[in-house]
């Protein structure tokens, strides 16, 4: 099923940008081809920036709501199990480490997107402000630390998956009933079809293996993305080819998750 998911389009543009960055160095053999690949890279980058132009609002709103929900006043009402509503809500939200890392990730990402927003006119060569390159470099530092917080969050969730309380808990199961058509043929008689109901037990929700795979994919994507601002800022000078390959890997991993979500 085809979809117009904006997140999927953004990942496709990221793949185009990253591949063009690699092709600009490896594939291009003439100055004209170098200019063509550079144009493709720059145009894909600008298109991606429009998709995230005001995304900092969502980042800060989600971060603030999470902080308010976790640190809000305790409630005295109790649920059917005798626990307070505050207890129930905190157990659903997770522990303090997970909440802290999530808030840090979203807050830092929001700062990066907010600062980058003021540089888009210079990226389009409409204006040429002297402060824009410095602001862009400083914003990338916040993106780097946001990705670092996201990677730490993934490692922490992986640790909880293996050694946390949920590691020893049994996977909840549910019974699924389905009808099966059975054809019976007796000697000298016509075939006769009947519907028989069968019941089988299946696990509820994603399995431990699928959760582990999703967490690992997120960690790999975050580490690959960290190479992009790390190279531009100068903390990890790797060159355009390794950074382009890392960006391509991140785009494919992120795009596959989006594809699975919109095409269940």
Automatic annotation (TrEMBL):
Keyword Membrane: yes
GO cellular component: peroxisomal membrane
UniProtKB keywords: Membrane, Peroxisome, Peroxisome biogenesis, Transmembrane, Transmembrane helix
Matches recorded under PANTHER family: MICROBODY (PEROXISOME) PROLIFERATION PROTEIN PEROXIN 11B (EUROFUNG), PEROXISOMAL BIOGENESIS FACTOR 11
Superkingdom of the organism of origin: Eukaryota
Protein name in the entry: Peroxisomal biogenesis factor 11
Keyword Transmembrane assigned: yes
Membrane-spanning parts: 99-123, 143-163
GO biological process: peroxisome fission
Location(s), subcellular: Peroxisome membrane
């Amino acid at each position: 099923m085809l979809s117009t998911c904006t997140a999927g389009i953004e990942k496709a543009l990221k793949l185009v940008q990253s591949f063009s960055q690699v092709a600009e160095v490896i594939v291009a053999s003439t100055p004209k081809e170098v200019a063509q690949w550079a144009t493709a890279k720059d145009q894909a980058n600008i298109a991606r920036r429009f998709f995230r132009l005001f995304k900092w609002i969502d980042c800060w709103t989600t971060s603030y709501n999470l902080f308010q929900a976790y640190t809000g006043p305790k409630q005295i009402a109790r649920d059917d199990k005798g626990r307070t509503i505050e207890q129930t809500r905190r157990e659903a939200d997770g522990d303090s480490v997970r909440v802290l890392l999530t808030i840090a990730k979203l807050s830092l990402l929001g700062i990066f997107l907010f600062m980058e927003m003021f540089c888009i006119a210079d990226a389009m060569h409409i204006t040429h402000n002297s402060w824009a390159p410095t602001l862009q470099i400083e914003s990338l530092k916040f993106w780097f630390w946001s990705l670092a917080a996201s990677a730490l969050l993934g490692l922490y969730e992986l640790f909880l998956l293996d050694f946390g309380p949920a590691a020893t808990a049994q996977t909840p199961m549910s019974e699924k009933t389905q009808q099966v058509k059975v054809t019976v043929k007796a000697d000298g008689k016509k075939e006769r079809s009947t519907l028989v109901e069968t019941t089988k037990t299946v696990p509820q929700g994603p399995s431990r293996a699928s959760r582990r795979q999703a967490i690992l994919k997120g960690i790999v994507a975050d580490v690959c993305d960290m190479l992009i601002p790390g190279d531009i800022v100068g903390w990890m000078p790797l060159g355009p080819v390794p950074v382009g390959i890392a960006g391509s890997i991140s785009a494919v991993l992120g795009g596959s998750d989006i594809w699975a979500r919109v095409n269940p």
